[in-house]
Amino acid sequence: MKLSGSSLFNRVEIMSLMSRQLYFLKFPKQLEVQYSSQYKKEAAREFQIRGLIIFLLYLYLSIGIYKIIPAADVKRWFMLYSWVGIIIIGAWILSLIKQIHRWFELYTGIGSSLAIGISFAMTGILGDGGSVLYHAAMMYAVVII
User: Fold this and answer.
1) Which residues 6+ apart lie within 8 Å of 35 measured at CB?
2) Residues of the chain with pLDDT > 70: what percent?
3) Averaged pLDDT of the chain
4) How many CA atoms lie within 13 A of 111 on its CB side?
5) What are the percentages of helix, strand and coil residues in the chain, rounded to 5?
6) Minimal CA–CA distance to 104: which of 96, 113, 95?
7) In angstroms, how far apart are the furthest CA atoms of the chain?
8) Average of pLDDT values for 99-109?
9) Closest among 44, 51, 42 to 2, alpha carbons compared
10) Which contacts qualify for 131-140: CB closer than 8 Å, 24 or more apart?
11) What pLDDT, on a 0 to 100 scale, did the predictor assign at position 73?
């Protein structure tokens, strides 16, 4: 992700800030607003590409789970785990709408939390709650998301 530079600081002022070894840097409000706006636009643009990759990884994981899941759990597993795919596609579609790029962190944060919550809940809802398969699926889902 490449963000455009700012002319609010010159090189000497930047080096001065860095040499103070402060734990927190406070930038002028104008610079913070400019950076935040650019960051969210670029993050949404990057997610337009990476969202599809995330969805393909989700599908690959789902196919692997489907092949080894007990037949008795397939329907319940599909009903729960399909929501993770819907959330991924929903966040990807939202990233295509330029008017809501300023809320990128909000909708991806909520979507990720829901998808991870569903993945965690599956380990307790399906089977006896101790199945290694469901724990592995949850772990991979967390990494993908």
Assistant:
1) 3, 6, 27
2) 79
3) 81
4) 22
5) 80, 0, 20
6) 95
7) 67
8) 92
9) 42
10) 133/65, 133/68, 133/69, 137/61, 137/65, 137/81, 140/61
11) 80
The one-letter amino acid at 45: R
- Name the pTM for this structure: 0.74
pLDDT of residue 97: 94
Structure tokens, 27: 């930038």
Cβ partners under 8 Å of residue 41, min gap 6: 98, 101
**According to the model, what pLDDT value does residue 83 have?**
92
Q: Which amino acid is at 54?
A: I
Q: How far, in Å, CA of 66 to CA of 72, rounded?
A: 12
- How far is residue 101's CA from residue 58's CA, in Å, rounded to a whole number? 24
CB contact at 8 A, 143 and 78: no
Give first-to-last CA distance, the chain, whole Å: 19
Burial of 33 (0-12, 13-18, 19+ CB in 10 A): exposed
Task: List pLDDT tens digits, range 20-78.
Answer: 666 666 777 888 888 888 888 999 999 999 999 999 988 988 898 888 888 888 888 88
